[in-house]
Amino acid sequence: MQNALYVGLSRQIALHREMDVIANNLANMDTNGFKADGVTFEEFLSSKARINRSSPADQRVSFVRESGSVTDFSQGTLQQTGGTFDLAIRGEGYFVVDTPQGERYTRNGSFALNDKGELVTQQGYRVRGQNGPLQFDQLDNSITFGREGTITAINGNQNQVIERGKIRLVRFDDQNALVREGNGLYSAGGQTPQNVKETTSIVQGSLEKSNVNPIVEMSRMLEVMRAYQSLANMMTKTDDLRKDAIDKLSQIPTA
Fold first, then answer.
1. Could you list the mean pLDDT of each consecutive 10-residue stretch along the chain, which spans 255 residues?
2. CA 8, CA 143: separation in Å to the nearest integer?
3. What is the pTM of this model?
4. Which of these, 152, 147, 124, lies nearest to 136 by C-alpha position?
5. Which of 125, 126, 165, 213 could pair covalently with 133 via S-S, beta carbons 3.0-4.6 A apart?
6. What are the two backbone dihedrals, phi and then psi, of residue 114, each rounded to the nearest 5 degrees?
7. Contact, 4 vs 234, CB < 8 A?
8. Which of 80, 86, 77, 76 is nearest to 121 (CA)?
9. Angle (nearest 5°) at CA 164 between 146 and 168
10. CA–CA dist 212, 217 (Å, integer)
11. Domain ranges of the chain
């Protein structure tokens, strides 16, 4: 009976972790460039008892524990905004930004200009071009980002088209090795960034939305809640059986 309680407890811990992941996905369903997470579990076998003469022979008890998490890196829906500095990546790749911790990578292309004319994220991190940070003149207008990342603008003083650099895009051989750091940023996880493929392109005036499917996540949440409640009922009944057994074994037989 004790084993049933321990097994049930291990499963409840796993379900609690799964509920945390689902809740985080739902909380970020409107976050630009967010990628949905999942959690994986594995069977864990307890060690056998060390009494060699036990009869019948001891059997291993099977528990459940978290083995890791997995991220769905599939493309999110591109939503048209019309914003000059709203950029979406169609295909595989990440924007590169400078942070106090070094280079970080994001799919969230909601950018703006700071007071120095530099292209920055909503957190103020500078977006990197092929040759460093991207900077614009105050008189620049009709700013255009080409599908391959080349940036052009019409300067008010010179009244001619001027190239302002090329936005840097990178990809990784193993996206699951990336480390999520919040605010839509990832660190490389020890990998070396690679150049994106020719099929990758930039869409100006659009943003990539989260790839979270709220219907699927709500269904998963209901399944987890029902499984947790079922385990709680089972553990309550098991505990009642244990109490009844103790109560009966403690009774003094009458002559």
1. 67 86 94 91 62 56 73 94 96 96 96 94 95 90 93 82 93 93 92 93 96 94 89 75 72 66
2. 60
3. 0.79
4. 152
5. 126
6. -90, -175
7. yes
8. 86
9. 60
10. 8
11. 2-73+213-245, 78-208
